[in-house]
């Protein structure tokens, strides 16, 4: 649906984005990750024609992205921009009309979303009377009111409590089921793991990583396994040799344990099982993959080390 091709942007001779390329497929949720100042918001503004790229271009559904295509895009900026003295109702209808809806269509869609979020009672309130979380819901409604094919969301979970984060997360998954394509910039790595199909990591304007969440977590795995067993802890430890390192343990009772163990020297899980199977009764075993937060931190640290050298 969206293809970003060799985008570069410069401000005052400083490189903000350098030769960034990626694609957003139909029915996909793509995580756009990076530390503050990495260039994520600038990239989103370029896609939405708020600012222009100095190099490269963006296509929509195979065609060069133009103003007429923006009617098919819903954009939630990080800097929320609602008219404080306007009522919720007038605000939503006004922004819906800017996106091509008639007054009747905008009102119908507004009623649907206010009811879906259980906030019909807010309709006559002015924006300035709302809490930050309430205003965030109104802004989200304004973003999706015209039923866009593509959503570009900059920190969509910001300002929400856990209950409302889950509410927005479910709506995004519903949009995905409908075939909509979504780009999310977020610092909430848990939501990246739960809802994103792929992720792109940029740092200091450069693309550092790209892949499915599964691929990225496997790329950074460290050979750590979580093993739960019943038996004698000393017998288990004595059965190991130098090829394994116990890095943590949980005690569940006199003879029940969970061990976090790191493989060394090219050993495989079958080697471990053959080593300890005569000494304990294994109740569970799984490979521990790094979280997306760990992938994020390790990638940024590695990139920064390369730059400093």
From TrEMBL:
GO terms of molecular function: ATP binding; ATP hydrolysis activity
Gene3D superfamilies: P-loop containing nucleotide triphosphate hydrolases (3.40.50.300)
Record has Ribosomal protein as a keyword: no
SMART domains: AAA
Ranges where the ABC transporter domain occurs: 2-229
InterPro entries in the record: AAA+_ATPase, ABC_transporter-like_ATP-bd, ABC_transporter-like_CS, ABC_transporter_ATP-binding, DrrA1/2-like_C, P-loop_NTPase
Keywords: ATP-binding, Nodulation, Nucleotide-binding, Transport
UniProt record similarity statement: Belongs to the ABC transporter superfamily.
Name of the protein this chain belongs to: ABC transporter ATP-binding protein
């Amino acid at each position: 649906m969206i293809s970003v091709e060799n985008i570069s942007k410069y401000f005052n001779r400083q490189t903000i984005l350098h030769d960034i390329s990626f694609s957003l497929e139909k029915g996909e949720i793509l995580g756009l990750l990076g530390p503050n100042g990495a260039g994520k918001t600038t990239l989103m503004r370029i896609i939405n024609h708020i600012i222009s790229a100095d190099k490269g271009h963006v296509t929509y559904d195979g065609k060069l992205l133009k103003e007429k295509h923006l009617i098919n895009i819903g954009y939630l900026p990080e800097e929320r921009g609602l008219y404080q003295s306007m009522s919720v109702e007038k605000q939503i209808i006004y922004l819906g009309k800017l996106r091509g809806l008639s007054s009747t269509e905008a009102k119908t869609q507004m009623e649907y979303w206010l009811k879906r979020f259980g906030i019909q009672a807010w309709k006559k309130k002015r924006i300035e009377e709302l809490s930050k979380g309430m205003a965030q819901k109104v802004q989200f409604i304004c973003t999706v009111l015209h039923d866009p094919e593509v959503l570009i969301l900059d920190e969509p979970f910001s300002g929400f409590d856990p209950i409302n984060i889950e509410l927005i997360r479910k709506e995004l998954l519903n949009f995905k089921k409908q075939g909509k394509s979504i780009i999310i910039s977020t610092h909430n790595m848990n939501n990246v793991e739960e809802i994103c199909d792929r992720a792109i990591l940029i740092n200091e304007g450069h693309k550092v990583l790209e892949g499915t969440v599964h691929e990225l977590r496997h790329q950074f795995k460290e050979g750590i396994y979580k093993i739960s067993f019943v038996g004698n802890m000393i017998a288990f430890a004595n059965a190991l040799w130098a090829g394994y390192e116990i890095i943590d343990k949980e005690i569940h009772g006199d003879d029940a344990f969970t061990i976090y163990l790191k493989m060394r020297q090219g050993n495989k899980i079958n080697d471990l099982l053959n080593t300890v199977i005569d000494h304990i009764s294994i109740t569970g075993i799984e490979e521990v993959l790094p979280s997306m937060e760990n992938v994020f931190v390790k990638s940024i640290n590695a990139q920064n080390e390369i730059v400093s050298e």
